[in-house]
């Protein structure tokens, strides 16, 4: 399945009466990165300019789908959704909602819109979700949609640092680890829970 198959000529992924899911673009950088820093437990890492720019670039140029969620009525940026592993048996869903719009049913509605369109385009019946073990609200939301926990893995921060270590000098890595020792210590023990979710009809 090609990424282009998911979008119309205006880069719209899907829409309903309330929401529009569009392809992530340069115009979304400020809102997207503000949300990324807000939801991240590694806020200090974004003070490292290389980390900030690396993160934005990796989302913008990702081979998977990164989507911006907007209110159809007002055009207000509400959050972001991701659809990864497009050719896998289980595509992976990710979601973050702007704080002012959380706990209003927007997340559940957006996930349902995403799954419906993904199923129409690719025939996907099952999805996978990765949620940090301390994100109780998201865990509960996905469980209400029928998600079942399947596995656990290390945090994204640890994964990104392993990639960055390949391009940084050893002294730069050690300096960052000393400066942000509390962050490194916390993230090494934090887990991501993996859930499976059947597409809703």
Automatic annotation (TrEMBL):
Q: Which PROSITE patterns match?
A: GNAT
Q: Name one Pfam family in it.
A: Acetyltransf_3
What residue stretches are annotated with the N-acetyltransferase domain? 19-169
Q: Which InterPro entries match?
A: Acyl_CoA_acyltransferase, GNAT_dom, N-acetyltransferase
Q: Which PANTHER family match?
A: GNAT FAMILY, PUTATIVE (AFU_ORTHOLOGUE AFUA_3G00765)-RELATED-RELATED (PTHR43792), N-ACETYLTRANSFERASE DOMAIN-CONTAINING PROTEIN (PTHR43792:SF16)
Name this protein carries in UniProt: GNAT family N-acetyltransferase
Source organism of this protein record: Blautia celeris
